[in-house]
Design a protein that fits this description.
Layout lengths: L1 H21 L10 E3 L6 H21 L4 H27 L2 E4 L4 E6 L3 E6 L3 E9 L8 E4 L5 E14 L5 E9 L4 H12 L1
Parallel strand pairs: 6-8
Antiparallel strand pairs: 1-2, 2-3, 3-4, 5-7, 7-8
């Protein structure tokens, strides 16, 4: 039951992200400085959406003699296209946010990851490009396009709540930013 609500919440957030994207607004940036991460996956998502459109047209032609089946697959294909565009939109409208007044760094990836890191817990921050990530206890890799570009080492763990509500403590967080140098510099200034 809990997984069902997680999926419904996910879909609602994707649709809300689409609305924010069309309105050229962002989610949760408030008084902080936003750092995007969507550029690294934009071309891939556009290509994936194009393939979904081609599949929709092909299935429409193949299923034209079976109207009920055609309607079902047309709905599913159009929904898939909306889903893919919604994922990209959520990457654009939900950037990482450095809030110096509130003393936090909010690390996000689409509607799947939203981790709040208090600045006083940041022990070290560095630019570190990684293309491979092995799962390890106490580490969270927030990859975009299979890469991360910033590494945070924390003095105390923070709680990360996953997609289905499972939580765990993390002490090292790796994530991607379009401007990792700018983010590392801004975070260094905010910690002083």
């Amino acid at each position: 039951m809990r997984a069902g609500w997680s999926l419904v919440r996910h879909e609602v957030r994707l649709l809300a992200s689409l609305a924010l994207w069309v309105a050229r607004r962002t989610h949760g940036t408030g008084r902080g400085v936003a750092f995007g991460y969507a550029r690294g996956q934009g071309a891939m998502m556009a290509g994936f959406a194009f393939v979904c459109v081609v599949e929709t047209v092909a299935l429409s032609v193949l299923l034209r003699d079976w109207p009920t089946l055609h309607a079902v697959f047309l709905f599913l294909d159009v929904y898939t296209i909306v889903f893919v565009v919604g994922l990209h939109a959520s990457s654009v409208v939900r950037p990482h946010v450095l809030d110096t007044e509130g003393g936090s760094l909010r690390i996000r990836r689409t509607v799947h990851v939203d981790l709040l890191v208090p600045l006083e817990r940041v022990g070290a921050v560095r630019r570190e490009l990684r293309m491979t990530h092995e799962r390890a206890d106490g580490e969270l890799d927030v990859e975009v396009g299979s890469q991360t570009s910033v590494t945070l080492e924390l003095t105390e763990p923070v709680r990360h709540v996953g997609f289905f509500g499972r939580s765990r403590e993390v002490r090292v967080v790796r994530f991607h930013a379009d401007d990792p140098d700018g983010l590392v510099r801004a975070l260094g200034r905010a910690r002083v």
